[in-house]
Design brief:
Elements (H helix, E strand, L loop, with lengths): L32 H16 L6 E8 L2 H11 L7 E3 L4 E2 L2 H16 L11 E7 L6 H16 L5 E6 L6 E7 L12 H16 L22 H11 L7 H15 L7 H25 L4 H15 L7 H30 L1
Antiparallel strand pairs: 1-4, 2-3, 2-5, 4-6, 5-6
Helix pairs in contact: 1-9, 2-3, 4-5, 7-10, 8-9
Length: about 350
């Protein structure tokens, strides 16, 4: 249908915030509401029913031949898994991987523009929540890589299906065929997520790729290196991350030191959430006034989705609540212990 009622500026609810002079991903909505109607309706319905969100992240970069060989060996599970290259050929065993690493390294080291810190390769992870068919995830990742990198950058990929989340490791040579260098920014990753989500939908898997704020999520996920340091600390194998020590100090000041008022960036976060939720509710209201029963039903679903979103939250305030709860529990335990001692007397 081409008469989908759309609130002016609604696409801003689906756009990630981008710093000035940074490229945005390609527009979520095609130019022209008449052409975008069915696409917007379908995406809004997926968001309202909380379709699983895809993940595309840059997990690392290699900067010397030894590191590249080790990473290829790691994603291939030390030769147990075959890596598929951009032509569809499968590299089995460690010898072909060593040859690939040597070829990529030689080409990169021959580039006169290269510096010591210039990556030889970029490592990407593409994943879906548990329950997705692993082979479909692999096929979607294959289609994603062909669309994004084919004829520009060499790559190899491999499926890991022995975890709760099937995921694909994609290793891309950082030096392109025409001398360009791969240097993905946040906007690229957002656009890549949309490509991967569409590839999954093309294979019958419900998938979406929206920024956190469009889902009412205001706290960033813990970065992988920090998570690993924290897990080592919790296992008694090292110090806690410096960033976590600072976070708990700030939370303690909020919990017990009276610094419980929102700081400026928390005010900005809350304002962004009000804007996003306002756009959703305006869109829901417009749909509920539509003559079409399909649009009215979607409007009700969108309103229910917005009403069910959690209030904006931040790590500082969440940790402060945890500290206060722990303090109350400690005082309760001490009070119970005193009562027990009194009874024993």
């Amino acid at each position: 249908m081409s008469d989908f009622p759309l609130v002016e500026g609604f696409e801003e609810a689906w756009r990630p915030p981008v710093r000035p002079r940074r490229r945005r991903p390609e527009a979520v909505l095609p130019n022209g509401a008449a052409q975008a109607g069915e696409e917007v309706r379908a995406r809004l319905a997926r968001v309202a029913r909380r379709a699983p969100e895809v993940m595309v992240k840059v997990s690392g970069r290699t900067r010397d031949p030894g590191h590249l060989r080790a990473h290829l060996d790691y994603v291939a599970r030390h030769g147990e898994l075959g890596l598929e290259d951009h032509d569809g050929a499968v590299l089995d065993g460690r010898a072909p991987l060593r040859e690939l690493a040597e070829d990529w390294s030689a080409l990169a080291l021959a580039d006169r523009r290269r510096r010591a810190t210039t990556p030889l390769s970029h490592s990407l992870v593409l994943s879906m929540p548990g329950g997705a068919a692993p082979l479909a995830v692999r096929d979607a990742a294959r289609a994603f890589a062909a669309e994004v990198f084919a004829d520009r950058f060499d790559y190899v990929l491999v499926l890991h299906s022995d975890t709760t989340h099937p995921h694909v490791h994609l290793v891309v040579r950082s030096l392109g065929h025409r001398g360009e260098r791969l240097a993905p920014k946040k906007a690229d990753l957002e656009a890549w997520r949309q490509v991967f989500a569409q590839a999954l939908r093309d294979r019958g898997i419900e998938a979406e790729a929206t920024p956190r704020r469009a889902r009412g999520v205001t706290r960033k996920a813990e970065r992988t290196p920090l998570r690993r340091i924290r897990e080592r600390h919790e296992a008694g194998l090292g110090r806690p991350p410096q960033v976590w020590r600072g976070a708990y100090q700030a939370a303690a000041r909020a919990a017990f030191g009276g610094e419980n008022q929102p700081v400026p960036w928390e005010d900005r976060l809350a304002a962004r959430q009000r804007q996003v939720r306002g756009l959703y509710l305006a869109q829901a209201n417009l749909l509920q006034r539509s003559a079409g029963p399909r649009d009215r039903e979607l409007g009700a679903q969108v309103e229910t989705f917005v009403r069910g979103l959690p209030p904006p939250d931040t790590q500082r305030l969440a940790l402060a609540r945890e500290l206060r709860a722990a303090s109350r529990a400690l005082h309760q335990d001490r009070g119970d212990a005193r009562k027990d001692r009194s009874r024993q007397r």
